[in-house]
Design a protein that fits this description.
The complex is a heterotrimer of chains A (350), B (298) and C (367). Chain A is of the alpha+beta class. Chain A is 67% helix and 8% strand. Chain A has three domains: 30 residues; 79 residues, no CATH class; 206 residues, Orthogonal Bundle (MetI-like fold), CATH 1.10.3720.10. The longest helix of chain A has 32 residues. Chain A is elongated. The two termini of chain A are 21 Å apart. The chains are: A alpha+beta (350), B mainly alpha (298), C alpha+beta (367). At the A-B interface, α1, α7, α8, α9 and α10 of A face α2, α4, α5, α6 and α7 of B.
Chain lengths: 350, 298, 367
Amino acid sequence: MVNRLNPIQKASVAIILTGMLLIVAIPLMCFVTVSFSNATEMSQFPKNLFPSGTVSVLVAPEENNRYTVYYDYHDGNGWTSIITLSDAKKLERHFTRQYAVTVPGEQLLKDFAATRETGEPRVFTYRKDTFYNFTQFFKIVPNAASGLKNSIIVSLLTILISLTLGSLAGYALARYNFKGKQQLNVGLLIVRMFPTVGISIPMAVLLIRMGLFDSLIGLAILYSIPNIALTSWITSSIFIGINKELEEASLVFGGNSVQTFLRITLPMAFPAMAASSMYAFTTAWNDTISALILTQKNQTLSLVVYKAIGTTSSGIQYAAAGSIILILPALVFTFIIRKYIGQMWGGVSM
Amino acid sequence: MNEKKRLISKNATPYILLAPVFLYYAVFWLYPVLAGVREVFIDMNGRFSLTANFKMMAESALFTESVVNTATFAALSVLLQYFFALLLSILLARKFRGAKLLMFIAMIPMAITPTATAIIWKTGLVKDGWINSLLMYLGLIKKQIVYMNVEGMDAVLLLVLIDTWTVTPSVMVILIAGLQGLQVEMKEAAYTFGANKLQILKDITLPILRPSITTSIIMRMIAALQVWSIAVMVLGYSKAPFLVERVAFYKDAIPGVDTSSKLAFTYSFMTTIVVLAATVIYLRVSNRGKKAAERSEA
Amino acid sequence: MSYLEIRDLQKRYTKNGPLIVDHINVSIEKGEFIVFLGPSGCGKTTTIRMISGLEEVTGGDILVDGQSIIHKLPRDRGVSMIFQSYAIWPHMTVYDNIAYPLKLQKVPKKEIDERVREAARATEIEQLLKRYPAQMSGGQRQRVAVSRAIVVKPKLFLMDEPLSNLDAKLRVTMRTELKRIHTEQGSTSIFVTHDQSEAMSIADRIMIMYKGNIEQVGTPMEVYQDSATRFVAEFIGTPPTNFLDAKIEQEEGFLWAAGDGFRYRVPQRLASAVEPYAGREIDLGIRPEFMDVSPDMTRTDAYLCDLHVDFVEPQGSHAILITRIGSKEIKVHTVEHMNLTPGADVSCNIRKDMVMFFDKETGKRVR
């Protein structure tokens, strides 16, 4: 079947493609820029659309060993005077806080001394500390560091619970025919599709009674609910695919059922396990509302970032930096599974 | 050997394997669900009442708005997303260089957590944000446009747009995967009998993909009905009320008020019912539509 | 007058890539049932797809009734195709599947109904018209594909390995069915397969392809007894032709083919063809069915050598003897001496001198 396009069609496809890419990429790029912006850039308008690695200031010498620092906001007013200082410590703090430039105060003074030679103001360009916003995130935003730790722990716990219970169920579904199998499948589907918000609140009450409120294990328990069902669905299809005779061969050669499961079946089901783990991880890592309901002190990273946005619109660049950490695992996961999307969503074939 | 497999196995193994799962769900799903339902039918004074809490919810602030907004948002966003995604996927479902990279980039907006999405758009929508910066660079505006004071339906529309940005590329990728996964010979057979590209699309491709498309629409709809975090993070509480937004409001913003807990329960119960009802209705409608189409062709 | 003519047909997929179909020429008569036979990758499917219009022609021409069709759309070529996977549309009933081609041609509803039922009758699936493909077996789906293909009353009936997905027993029944339908409809058919016994049983003529080239076109008997190339001799027949390395010698006024463990006198009728090979190496091919064994060690003019039977495979109607000539394993097909046991010694004479010589370099038959 001929599937070639004439030049006009090719051009329109290219235009649509580029347009779509731009629409997706530009907001993402701006977001990345924000997360690398320093305080001064954040108060600028119009904003930079690309991250910049350096900051340029104009320094003019003043009497009494003082210097005036000027910054160009690109708002048509040229160099605007910001501050006049002579103290090394204060200079260092200003540069760190405003420009994310972490050069020691003494060094700054030394550099600025060059202006005294001619008496004329000079432009100085310094490298920004790339990870300044990230370190600030962990310093300023409440519970940031513990949030990261908690998110990792909860996600791992969720993977553990979901995979263990889910693959047992998946194996049972794949290998055995038993009464109520059909109903079980329907039941698992319902659990998987059930809106989390419907369970979160009563779950909070239950956890309080069990003494597990505001605990990481409590969160993991909630996150595992849909994921156990999802894992059993994924693994049962894989187990069905794994030839029963491979398992039977192991039994013939003297292994018992447990050994067979551990040594033969499980390794072959690895891709399914990996996929299920990633889904479980993502659920736990990305969720905000359940964490909101079920925790107070032990917050997860996404909850921490969520709270950080609400509080300020100054300092949002730190929250942005924090959310970059938040989205990294999701990016990795998406990159890995993009090949398998086709298998999951391919049209019905006969 | 085959006969033996068909008999219902009396072996206890499957039950042993499933026991932990049953137990888990009994304790951590069934019980909370039932407890939640029970809570909804016990009023503020601890007495059983079928309607007391629903009355309280219906009279609470912004109830009507939250229902209307939720319905509008779900309907509009699903419609928009699928319309664009289908259009794009039909145009772009062919092999070209960099297709894999494109797919990856397209899937990013939906893969990142809503919190990040909220930051992206919040930093864009503020008066001195990147949207205005971009427009100014392009020379399209001279003065900053204020977006953040949107209210009512305008706010909902803004959120629909943001949601469409997030979801459409991913849906497009899924649809393209479906289109390309379709067995080539199905299309070739139609082609040899004289069908043109449009007829192949209408008579063969889309009908065969129908089940997958339906499934993904249902899942999108379920997610859309539970929208809340974008609304709260970009606009703040109570600016653009939704059902789940109300739940979060009563749990997060004013948890101390004595009616908050009940209201949160009732709203979340209502959301669950709405989601289940919508799913059932959609399935019925799409099945009926399918049967009608078949009957007309016979 | 040939009905379908393929002239110097070529196909390549990339600009400087290899020729998948390498300058082939063949004429097909009206009403003929011709089989394109060959191993995977030989170009038979590509050829049939070019005839149907699913692939573009890189070079050469295809003519139907004297008119070139390579620039026509499939529906204007008067062809109908059955795919290996049947390509039955899962969302339509059997009736709709068969009716769809007619719908595309905007045939009036009443006529569609008549023709669909007629096509369904031809393959005996009238009771299945309201069913969906998912509710049917592979054999039934295959019949739907056939009905759909014949309902448009095509000039040319193309079948791409239509029986490969059926189990062995069904395959045998269905191939006779297909031949019957072909005859009833009076169509011209091209049938693609890699199964040589299938080809032998239904073809009027067989076209054997290998690596994009035509090895031979002929009736089943012709390709069997009079193989044009070594490939054909090896591909056709079960068990396949035995091959021996031989050197042609001249002695006592006769030509002899001699090799490791045998010495065979070249028959008179082949003498002039084989003579140029005197003093050179040549391939000697002999079919298992044409090797006569004698437990009483008789030697005729067509004597090949003595054989020591290693294994016997009784098949009921005949037996296969596994033996060796020199270092080569040889299979012999015998009807008269089915009671031979392993360890027996027999003499072997070639029946009616049905030996085939092939040039070692070109693989072509020496005649």
